Amino acid sequence: EDISRLGQDFRLMFDAVINHASVGHEWFQGFLRDDPRYQEYFVVVEGSPDLSQVVRPRALPLLTTFETTSGPKQVWTTFSADQVDLNFKNPDLLLEIVDTLLFYVSQGAALIRLDAIAYMWKENGTTCIHLPQTHRIIQLFRSMLDQVAPQVLLITETNVPHVDNISYFGNGDNEAQMVYNFALPPLVLHTLQTGNSRVLAEWAARLKLPSRRTTFFNFLASHDGIGVNPARGILPEAEIDAMVERILQHGGLVSYKHVAGGAQIPYELNINYFDALSDPKSGEPLEVQIDRFIAAQAIMLALVGVPGIYVHSLFGSRSWHAGVQLTGRNRTINRQKFDLQALEHELSDESSLRHQVFHRYSQLLSARSASAAFHPYGEQQVLDAGSAVFALLRRSPDSAGQVLCLQNISNQAAQVRVNLQGINGVPLPHLTDLITGQGSYDVQQGNLVLAPYETLWLR
Question: Could you report the per-residue pLDDT of 37-58, keeping only the tens digit for each?
């Protein structure tokens, strides 16, 4: 009833956690009792097959032994011992999942998020990630939804290197309509930590969508940490190592994964995104830290796609170290539960961090929603405005709306000159800022100076 009531005012995204189930789930409890219905619902490993190539997201045992009525059995547990992987080789299990997705649709799902979908299919002697059978099952889901609920969109959550991540668009018409843009959080973090936009600009310039029916789900923070893997192949390993070291200096934690040969490498940075950008022990003025944080959010909001905003980013939360001590889990550092009365009190205090972040964020969201240039199926063009500025031209699908997004990503004032000659439809030379309503800005003559971390969205 609560969800139906929410659906009256909001488009809802339902989280389809279908790679695995809880050990407490009735299916697995039936498996432990040797109920014939559930014997093929989970991935049981007998003997000692070659599993050396299996890609793991965490440095935990791949197999877990459970006592069943008929004796001990080794069951595949990709993520942890309390999450058992489902066996999609069993048609009955596949149909159970199809039924579950259709139930979500019947309850008002506008989008369905496929959690950790890359690990769905298991095949001994392979990596067991991104296998062709996984893509075929997603294509099955897409075909089904296109027939019975074409308004429902699929979004895949695959915390993997960028090239693998965007493979879940398929050909642009047969898999997910949206993919999580996992490379964005570490790249924006690197950009603001170094004060250099070159890597981000070069990466963003290469972003291509396979069709007008696809787009990115852009985000910087979530209930999980900041994934490191998506940055591999984009950032040099030395830059990744430096980023990890800065996170540790800022009071964050690091989670590791196993790679071939038994070594461990950083997999996830566990820290609140605000503290990832600014060292809470530095004594730096709070207003500078807020400016830097809002600069990061403005980059995410400007890029082509649909923005996903973590509630702790919206309200300017910081790392919750007490939570880590309470649970013993690194990810708790970014999962503090709000007390409503305390939150409302802080939001009403104009001098508080929460009020200032929420006010600034609201300004950005109002400006973004006021322009068709930020349409998720629109276009973007990365422009060269020097290493201290990230410059992006956004254009609506019909080209009627255009916005020039300028972001100083450094702690120094930056002189800006952008060559707009040859770009059709851009009125010259004077432009107005969508965020403040102020004008007119001249970006052609080189006399525009952006303050440290200043954002301009010029129409």
Answer: 999 999 999 998 989 899 877 7
Q: Rounded CA gap, 23 and 66, in Å?
A: 10
Q: Report how far apart, in Å, the C-alpha atoms of 3 and of each of 9, 125, 452 are.
A: 11, 43, 43
The answer to whether the CB of 380 falls within 8 A of the CB of 204 is yes
Number of neighbours of residue 322 by Cβ within 10 angstroms: 11
Closest CA to 360 of 192, 178, 368, 38: 368
Q: Assess contact for 58 and 160: CB atoms under 8 A.
A: no
Active-site position among 115, 173, 241, 279: 115
Q: Determine the pLDDT at residue 201.
A: 98
Q: How far apart are CA 79 and CA 70, in angstroms?
A: 25
Residue 27 to residue 43: CA distance in whole angstroms: 13
- As a whole number, the mean pLDDT across the chain is 94
Is the omega angle on the peptide bond into residue 282 within 30 degrees of 0, that is, cis? Answer: no
Please list, in sequence order, all residues whose beta carbon lies within 8 angstroms of the beta carbon of residue 108, skipping any fewer than 6 positions away: 3, 4, 7, 12
Neighbour order of strands in the sheet with 402-408: 379-383, 389-395, 402-408, 455-458
Q: Exposed, middle or buried by CB within 10 Å (0-12, 13-18, 19+), for 422? A: exposed
Establish whether 115 is a catalytic residue: yes
pLDDT digits (tens, 9 = 90+) for 63-111: 999 999 999 999 999 999 999 999 999 999 999 999 999 999 999 999 9
441: which DSSP letter?
E
Distance, in Å, from the CA atom of 176 to the CA atom of 167, rounded to the nearest integer, reads 9
SS3 of 160, please?
coil
Residue 422: the pLDDT is: 62
* pTM greater than the 0.90 cutoff: yes
Q: Which residues pair with 373 in a beta bridge?
A: none
pLDDT reported for residue 60? 81
Confidence bin at 442 (pLDDT 50/70/90):
confident
Cβ-based neighbours of 147, under 8 Å, separated by 6 or more: none
User: Considering only CA atoms, which of 368, 394, 390 is closest in space to residue 379?
Assistant: 394
What are residue 65's DSSP bridge partners? 74
Identity of the residue numbered 213: R
Residue length of the chain: 459
Backbone angles phi, psi at 279, to 5 degrees: -70, 115
Determine the pLDDT at residue 359: 98
Distances (CA, A) of 266 to 58, 59, 242, 243: 10, 10, 12, 11
Mean pLDDT of 315-338: 97
User: Which of 114, 24, 119, 131 shows the shortest CA–CA distance to 62?
Assistant: 119
CB 296 within 8 A of CB 200: no
